[in-house]
Amino acid sequence: MRNWPLTGLRVTTPRLELRMPSLDDLDRLADRAAEGVHDPDVMPFIVPWSEAEPQERVLRTVQYHFTQWGTWTPEEWVCAFAVIFEGEVVGTQAIAATEFAVIREVTSGSWLGRRFHGRGIGTEMRTAVLHLAFEGLGARYAASAAFADNHASVAVSRKLGYRDDGIQFHSRRGEPVTTLRLRLAREDWVARPGFEIHGLEPCLPLFGATPTPAPPDR
Question: What string of pLDDT tens digits covers the 218 residues of the chain?
Fold first, then answer.
């Protein structure tokens, strides 16, 4: 779409494609939400949207993406991708920022259909948006947070080089729970082979970003 260049933005990895979801992608993403995204005995999200009935999860999933598109500004944005694995929409991976042009920091969030857990997809899709943030947008930092007992999310962060950045507390199901804050600095980021960004340049003004200077001739 010429007047909304984000529709052409993609990040590809050795196994995945991350793209701004089409309406068909949203249908399939909503199906994953209805199927379930985690064990019902645990709650990994600060906003417990996944506890709703399947049909309500479908509606919330679609509305979330419509809301992010409709409220996007260069000063505040959430870039929520559909994640494609072996031709199937398996989950969503987002990065977000406020005043990115000044602060140069992104945060991330994601969920993955439960039946796709345990295949390393979560790590690969987080790596993809970090590649976009650091290599494409010129971010200085990437921040993340997870409940202390969300071992899978914390393990992904540590594997990718995040460092501890303090704690805070939230209410979960009526009980206090510790949240770990983690931070990855640009100098600690290690680019991985096989990760590529497509269609970014026309999107840069929407992110509050500028083109990365070309390396000097040798």
Answer: 788 999 999 999 999 999 999 999 999 999 999 897 777 777 666 666 667 688 998 999 999 999 999 999 999 999 999 999 999 999 999 999 999 999 999 999 989 998 999 999 999 999 999 999 999 999 999 999 888 888 888 899 999 999 999 998 878 778 898 999 999 999 999 999 999 999 999 999 999 998 654 444 43
User: What is the per-residue DSSP string for 26-87?
Assistant: HHHHHHHHHH-SS-TT----SS-GGGS-HHHHHHHHHHHHHHHHHH-BTTEEEEEEEEEETT
Give the whole-angstrom CA distance, residue 16 versus residue 128: 9
Domains of the chain by range and CATH?
Answer: 5-207 (3.40.630.30)
- In terms of Cβ atoms closer than 10 Å to its own Cβ (0-12, 13-18, 19+), residue 121 is buried
R_g (Cα) of the chain, nearest Å: 17
Task: Quote the CA–CA distance of 110 and 178 in Å, as a whole number.
Answer: 19
